[in-house]
Amino acid sequence: MDVARYRVTVSDMSNTPSPQDLHDSDSGSASQDRLRYRLLTGPDTDAFCKRVSDALAEGYVLHGSPSITFDGTTTYVAQAVVLP
């Protein structure tokens, strides 16, 4: 059986303001310092789980199901989070 191999990458979000752009805006609102949507990606490790847990502690909520892929060597995961 031929198994397709994929690499998880962050998509081009050129229309999304960078965190620095949000920080430089005229509004001093704390919510403006954080992106409303984040896609967390990386190898399936405790460090990745901590990143997701940290985002939840910052007020983000899970958005959709997690994704997982295997490139023949490493398992990669992705989880979208959003601010409510």
Task: Report on the architecture of this protein.
With 84 residues, the protein is of the alpha+beta class. The chain has one domain (19-82). 20% of the residues lie in helices and 30% in strands. It has two helices and three strands. The chain has helices at residues 19-23, 46-57, and strands spanning 37-43, 61-70, 75-82. A three-stranded antiparallel β-sheet has the order 1-3-2, with helices on one face. β2 and β3 (75-82) form a beta hairpin. The longest helix has 12 residues, at 46-57. The protein is elongated, with a radius of gyration of 15 Å. The N and C termini lie far apart (43 Å).
Report the portion of residues in β strands.
Answer: 25-35%
Number of strands: 3
Shape: elongated
Provide the low-confidence segments as ranges.
Answer: 1-28
Q: Separation of termini?
A: 43 Å
How confident is the prediction overall: mean pLDDT? 77
Read across the widest sheet, the strand sequence of neighbours is 1-3-2
How do the SSEs run, as a string of H and E? HEHEE
Biggest pleated-sheet summary: 3 strands, antiparallel
What's the total helix number?
2
Gyration radius (Cα, Å) is 15 Å
Which structural class is indicated by helix and strand composition?
alpha+beta
Overall structural domain count: 1
- Helix content estimate: 10-25%
Give a summary of the structure in a few sentences.
This protein is an alpha+beta fold and 84 residues long.
